[in-house]
Amino acid sequence: MEEGTPSPATYRWQDWGLRELLTAKQDAGTRVSLVVPARNEAATVGGVVSRVREALVDTVALLDEIVVIDSDSDDDTFAVAEDAGAVVHRSRDIRPDLGSVPGKGEAMWKSLFVTTGDLLVFMDADLLDWDTHFVPGLLGPLLTSPPVRLVKGFYERPYVDGDVVTPYEGGRVTELVARPLLSLRFPELTGVRQPLAGEWAVRRSLFESLSVPTGYAVEIAALIDTFRTHGLEALAQVDLGRRAHRHQALRDLGAMATQVMAATESRWAGRPPRDAVMLLDREVPLGERPPARSLLEVRR
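RE: above sequence
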């Protein structure tokens, strides 16, 4: 990174040992929830849940619960995740009085009503090349540095096309849209390596206070809003090594890019987000959920 480029505190996952983090968690009386939003991920969600459960619940009790939020899947995602040891909720069944809309951000927002952790770790369900150190790596700054409120993961993201693997060519929306847009609109966040990373962790007290886009802009919105409210010192990022996942079709990436741009621009311009836009013959929803704090029942 060039000298003078603003950057949040940056770590490697190896900077903390499991026992160190477990002691910090116990000393603080902190509960930790892993949340996995999933839609039609029956092929991979079981492996994500079972590996994390064995390593970080059964062997070392760093996690208190693993919760999968099934976002209206029409495959066996629910059953596979449950068989692997997760607590599974269908997004539409959580607080039905609030309604339900499709989307990753919606599933993550709904998780606030069914989880108990003071710290929330989010992981995507479609991971192919990863390891369980992602979770303690993301928890490290939150458990050892009180000013940190939100932690982003970053990693080498290869592009996989059949048998051909090209290093560092994954993350097309990140490289073509998110990072250039942040450099233009929020240059203080230029040093965030993976602003759209699905692997991140946050204090519940912060996430409850945020407006949450219901689609794919949830990560960049949380990043911008945390920076605007609490400053760069509230952010950290951790090098998690290597991560690969299932690539989406180009048409779907266009919708994702639209949501990312809309959330960023509405925050830069200081105006409410639009409900939706048309992208050729396709409607792209842009709505956001209000901060969940006012809707949550009083917890013990």
